[in-house]
Structure formats: structure tokens, C-alpha cells
Design goal:
It contains 7 helices and 13 strands. With 349 residues, it is of the alpha+beta class.
């Protein structure tokens, strides 16, 4: 059993609303300098996890950042195409196989809203989220000690061709089980759109509601690192987003996450094995910015621990419901189409 106070007790004291930010009661496990995290935030930006080719530094001048942002494509759509919001002809035939828009136009530019600039951290424009190693690249092992199953979902996105043998063959995001792009993390990064988060902080928990796509992380907090680590769940329990425990170090919330559901890791842009862990750090830099770092440790997949850094910036709410219906309504059509093709291949119409 976790050695925590009941969340309801704190909610009853301060109320689980935006007004919670005004609650001044500090729990005994928080310390007197804990950062106030409650609020609505966004991490939308055009920066990617790894540094682009040809860019040799992390921090860019405003002019350099503007030039790099102008060359950054999103979801297969170039910046030039993204600026063209011409109406699509609903009666147009499907694109020919192999054409530039085949498989890459699940979204047109109207739906894409990743931000208008590179990531800003403490006022600096960043060319990559990765800050260590200094080359801005993920230090993957050439020969991983553990091989995660490759479902081929990246190829599915590019080609439009993939396994439709059953509902479980489709990606988690396509089935509306998790948001895509690692938005809920651990290792929380912005994506094509809806990069909004609501943080709610109590004496002994922090809840992070993720707009993409209805995900929520509930993190218990403890008086010390030692106590937090002693309250990890049994290793046999592997929930979505993992087993997270937190503690405060001065003005920083530190969160350690282990035992993430293997199915999630097989489809994650930042995978770890059962031996790995994430260390996340949330530091209140100003009234409008939380600096967020995450360190990935897993010697089965990476040659060394590595760290990424980005910021959450204050934004207006509310966080709207993300009504993901692909898995609810499109599933029938996807599977029915696959069965029809199988019948035709067998000579049965």
C-alpha cells in the first residue's frame, strides 16, 4: 500500500479547481519552497527531440531560430504547403499510390497547430530538446541488448498499408487508447496539435491532464527521495505511463518512473525496457514558465543516460475534451475493408 494521505482529503480542503493555485497550505511532505505548478500550460513548438542535420549548436539566435523554423516540416507537410490552406475537393479521387500526398495527408494544414516557433527555454531558442549528449542525438546502442517488437507503424503512416488482421493490430493512438507523439510521456513533448496540459497540485499528489488525447498522469509525492522510491508499486504492476513517484528538491518537483506497460514502450518514440527508468524535473522558472527536463536511463537500449529539456508556458484554458473517434467509428470500416480484400484475393466476392 502506498503510504500517502487520501487525495480526497486535500481536495476537500482546497477544491480541485483552478482556484487551487491560491491554496497556501503546504503538506508536510512538500517542504516550504515547493514550486507552484497548478495551472494550464502548453509545450507546443517546432523543435524536435534530436538536432537537425547541419545544425551544430543547441542555443540559436532569434534570426537563426526563425530560419530553422521556416525550414521545418510537420507531418510530411512542408512549410510552403502548410501556408496554403486551399479547400480540398471532396469529390476528388484518392491520390495515386506512391504520390507525394499518399499516406502523408492524414492531416491537411488546417488541422495542424504545433506552434509557430522553435522551443524557448529560459528565453533561449533551442535547436533540439536533447541537451546531453551535446551533439543533440539519442545515444542508441548499435546492437541493443533487448529488442523491442517492431509493429511497423511508422511505415504504415508513410505508405497507408498496414496490418488489419484485427483491432489489436492497429496502433494504440489509432485505437484512441493513448495520444500519439509521446504527449503524456514520460518524456512529455508537444505534437501536431492540442499540446495543452492542466496541472493540479495537492499536498500529496500532482495530476497532469493531457489534452492529447484524454490521458491523465496521477503522481503521488513524498517527503524524500528515499520514501518515494520505497513506495514504488510491485514490479509486476506495469500501468500505462508507468509507476511514477515524486518528491521535491527545493523549487523542483522530481518524478521517477519505472515499470511502464511494455505495449506502450513498443510504440513509444522514447522506449525503455523493464530495467530502465525516467527521471523528470519540473522547475518553476517564472510566473509563465515551467522548465521541464527528463533523463532516460536504460543500458539495454542506450550507450549512456541522456537528457532532454523544454518548457511549459502558461496559456489560457480551458482544456477541451479530445474526442478521438477513429477507434470508435473507423475501426469497423478498416476491418471490413480488409476482410473484403481477403475475399477478393480468394476469389470470393
Amino acid at each position: 500500500m502506498r503510504k500517502t494521505k487520501r487525495l480526497a482529503a486535500k481536495i476537500g480542503t482546497c477544491g480541485l479547481v483552478l482556484g487551487l493555485a491560491a491554496c497556501s497550505t503546504i503538506g508536510t511532505g512538500q517542504g516550504n519552497e515547493r514550486p507552484e505548478l497548478t495551472g494550464i500550460w502548453t509545450n507546443a513548438s517546432l523543435t524536435n527531440l534530436s538536432r537537425p542535420r547541419g545544425v551544430d549548436k543547441l542555443v540559436l539566435s532569434p534570426q537563426e531560430a526563425q530560419m530553422l523554423a521556416a525550414k521545418t516540416g510537420v507531418a510530411g507537410i512542408s512549410p510552403e504547403e502548410a501556408s496554403d490552406n486551399a479547400v480540398t475537393d471532396p469529390d476528388a479521387p484518392p491520390p495515386p499510390k506512391g504520390s507525394s500526398d499518399f499516406g502523408l495527408r492524414g492531416y491537411n494544414s488546417f488541422w495542424i497547430d504545433p506552434g509557430s516557433s522553435l522551443a524557448r527555454v529560459r528565453g533561449e531558442f533551442r535547436s533540439s530538446y536533447i541537451i546531453e549528449p551535446s551533439n543533440g542525438q539519442v545515444p542508441r546502442l548499435k546492437e541493443p541488448k533487448v529488442k523491442l517488437k517492431d509493429h511497423g507503424f511508422g511505415r504504415r503512416y508513410v505508405t497507408g498499408i498496414g496490418d488489419a488482421s484485427g483491432p489489436e493490430a492497429l496502433p494504440l493512438a489509432e485505437r484512441c487508447l493513448l495520444g500519439f507523439g509521446n504527449t503524456a510521456g514520460p518524456g512529455m513533448m508537444g505534437t501536431l496539435y492540442n499540446s495543452t496540459y492542466q496541472f493540479v497540485q495537492t499536498d500529496d499528489h500532482v495530476m497532469i491532464l493531457v489534452e492529447m488525447a484524454h490521458d491523465a498522469r496521477i503522481i503521488p509525492t513524498f517527503a524524500s527521495k528515499k520514501e518515494a522510491q520505497a513506495n514504488h508499486r510491485p514490479a509486476v504492476m506495469k500501468p500505462w505511463f508507468g509507476d511514477s513517484v515524486g518528491w521535491y528538491e527545493g523549487n523542483t518537483l522530481v518524478v521517477e518512473t519505472t515499470n511502464i506497460k511494455p505495449l506502450q514502450m513498443e510504440q513509444s518514440s522514447i522506449p525503455i525496457t523493464q530495467d530502465g527508468k525516467f527521471i523528470e524535473r519540473f522547475t518553476r522558472h517564472s510566473d509563465t514558465e515551467i522548465v521541464y527536463q527528463f533523463t532516460v536511463e536504460d543500458s539495454n537500449l542506450y550507450s549512456r543516460p541522456w537528457t532532454a529539456e523544454l518548457s511549459f508556458h502558461a496559456t489560457e484554458g480551458p482544456v477541451y475534451e479530445y474526442a478521438c473517434h477513429e477507434g470508435n467509428y473507423a475501426m469497423e470500416g478498416i476491418l471490413a475493408g480488409a476482410r473484403k480484400k481477403e475475399r477478393e484475393a480468394a476469389g470470393n466476392n
